[in-house]
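Batch job 17 of 40 flagged for manual review because the log was empty.
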Amino acid sequence: MSARLEPIVGRYLHVEIAGVAHRIYVEEAGAGRPVLCLHTAGADTRQWRHLMCDAEVTEGHRLIAFDMPWHGKSLPPEGFQTQEYLLTTEAYIETVLAVADGLGLERPVLAGCSMGGRIALQLAALHAGRFSGFIAIEASDFQPAWYDIDWFDRPDAHGGEMGAALVSANISPHAPEAERWSTLWMFMQSGPGVFRGDLSFYTQDDSLIARLADIDTARTPVHILVGAYDLTCTPEDAERTARAIPGATLAVMDELGHFPMSEHPDGFRPFFLDALARMRQPVPVGA
C-alpha cells in the first residue's frame, strides 16, 4: 500500500472553562458550513474519523471534533491528581460553548452521540440561538444506570477493559469486526475514572426531561438518530424523547448500535447525510 495523508488536521485550542485553563485537542476536515461533533462517554474524537475522511460528507461541510477535557489528547487541568472527575450538565455546556467561541464558529450545526446527543438537546433547550441545528445521535431524555458505574474506577479492576466490556453489548452484530475492535480500543484507553465521571452525568442528571417542551424546532431543527441495536438508548427511548419535542424528527437506523459513526461508518453514512440535509441554513442577520 502506498503512503497517503488523511485530510484531518489537528490543533490545540487554549480556552478557559469555569475559570480554569484548558488545552483542548481539536480536529477538522472539509470546508463550508461548520458542524461541531461530540464524542461519546469515555471516548474521544477518533470516533468521527471515518466521516471526516469522507469527501461526500465534507463537501460543503467543515466537520470539527474535539476531545473533551480529560479525554484523548486533551489533558486534565493542572492539579487533576487531587480532583475527582465528575462531569456535570453545566460544565459540559460551558465546554461546548467555550470551544465554539474559541474557534469563532458562527451558529454551527451541533452533532453529538450518546452523552453528546444528550447535551445537544440541553443546548437546544437553553442556547438554541448559538446553533443552527441539532443532530442528536443515540439521545434520549434520561437513562438511569442499569449497571454499577463504580466498577469503572476500582484498584482491583481494569477500568478501560470494564468499560469496553460494557459497551461491547451496545455495538451492532452487523458492525465490521475491525471497526468493532477499533471502537472498543478507545474505551480500553480511557483515563482512570473518566468513563465513570461521564456516566455520572449521563445516568444521574434528569433535568432535560422538563426542558424538552421548551425546544423550538421552528427556530432550530432537531433530528434524532437511534440505532436499532442500541441497548442503552433504545429506539423506544428515542421515540419517547422525540414525541416530547414539538416538531422534532426521528430516524431508526437498521443494523446500527450505540456508536454508529465509529462501529459501522458505512451504515451510518446515509443517515448522517440525510440529517445534515435537514439542517436549515441560518438566516443572515438583517435579512
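Reviewer: the log was empty due to a logging misconfiguration, but the result itself is present. The longest strand covers residues 20-38. Unflagging and moving on to job 18.
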